[in-house]
Amino acid sequence: MVYFENVEKRYPDGTLAVDGLNLEVESGEFVVLIGPSGCGKTTSLKMINRLEECTGGKIYVNGKDIMTLNPVKLRRQIGYVIQERGLMPHHTVAENIATVPLLLGWPKKKIDARVDELLDMAGLPKEKYKYRLPAQMSGGQQQRIGVLRALASDPEVVLMDEPFGALDPISRDNLQNELLTIHKKLKKTIIFVTHDISEALKLADRIVLMRRGKIEQIGTPDELINNPATKFVEEFIGSDQLSQISGDASVTALLEDVIMEVNLNAAIEDVLEDMQDRDVKSAQVTDAKRRWHGSIYLSTLKKAKREGKQLVKETLSVNRKLYVEDGNLKDAAEMLVDMEAPIPIINSANELQGIVTEKGMAKYTINKLIK
Ligand SMILES: Nc1ncnc2c1ncn2[C@@H]1O[C@H](COP(=O)(O)OP(=O)(O)OP(=O)(O)O)[C@@H](O)[C@H]1O
Ligand SMILES: [Mg+2]
């Protein structure tokens, strides 16, 4: 879909920004360009839609040498999200999104419907946002509008230059997820620039790691992590170990043996004594087949005893649990923030698989940090 053949860019002052770039981006692929500041990412992106002209080699878009195309027409075929949103401040959200369709001469009705459809897709209610000015929206919302504007005319190729750079981590995470959903649904070819390695690992089908205008390595996130081609790649990827603790990782990464397991028919009195002896504050309640029935806590057991209850099965907490099949570390972290007791991990047959603890999560983080 986008093909770089020995592409070179030397700026008039002599700076060699891109030095012999060879890259083939396939249709529907999500490629992330990453590398240190000044390595030529933005320049590479801008050459695709001829905001900068290459000084050597050739670039093909959809099989056509871009030098044979009219640059204005070329740009209208390619979505482009620049850093810092770049919305027109005196135009409404609707007008901003409609920029390229207007230039392409779409009928008004079609444009209007397209704007509504896009706002809907980004979870921005049109009644509320359509006629706002950019300044009346939050940074994250403006960033969304920037992305929608690039998608408006339904281009096959979308270029994005650090589109989420200026956002707080939560908005960033949300927008990344939205972008992944959009990419899955619309199958656009996306070339995305970032210098955030965790963002690259999360989003990319393939990562292109650049250094001083050249490609250091091209590969899937797994290939770059597991088979770094050079010391530079290893250090670049490794520079961000912490962020590899992805919230999307399965809870199985942190699964530990159950500290205390109690039979469903045990007496509250006995269990209380046992817990106090062993100095534990919670336990998992199972039956003879090791099916999980709930958790018990020291505090609730004491209360149940005062209320005259006899058996642990009369005081079970059943809502706080995660499934081994789909529980992820983010879910676990959120639960641990609410309450530090171990989280029972069960499978879809309700069998107890283990627990995830606050201590286990801390250990994991620490190990990643000192690696
Ligand atoms: N118009 C220009 N004239 C001269 N040199 C330029 C020009 N634009 C960029 N450069 C130089 O080209 C090199 C590559 O710049 P580019 O903007 O592509 O880097 P980048 O990888 O996008 O960096 P960053 O991560 O900081 O955005 C840098 O050395 C930069 O100083
Ligand atoms: Mg740049």
TrEMBL record:
Localization per Swiss-Prot or TrEMBL: Cell inner membrane
A UniProt-annotated Pfam family: ABC_tran
InterPro entries assigned to the protein according to its UniProt record, in alphabetical order: AAA+_ATPase (IPR003593), ABC_transporter-like_ATP-bd (IPR003439), ABC_transporter-like_CS (IPR017871), CBS_dom_sf (IPR046342), Gly-betaine_transp_ATP-bd (IPR005892), P-loop_NTPase (IPR027417)
Topology term for the membrane: Peripheral membrane protein
Keywords: ATP-binding, CBS domain, Cell inner membrane, Cell membrane, Membrane, Nucleotide-binding, Repeat, Transport
Source organism of this protein record: Fusibacter paucivorans
Name this polypeptide is given: Quaternary amine transport ATP-binding protein
Main localization of the protein described in the UniProt heading: membrane
PANTHER family with a match to the protein in the record: OSMOPROTECTANT IMPORT ATP-BINDING PROTEIN OSMV
Tagged with keyword Kinase: no
PROSITE patterns, alphabetized: ABC_TRANSPORTER_1, ABC_TRANSPORTER_2
Subunit structure: The complex is probably composed of two ATP-binding proteins, two transmembrane proteins and a solute-binding protein.
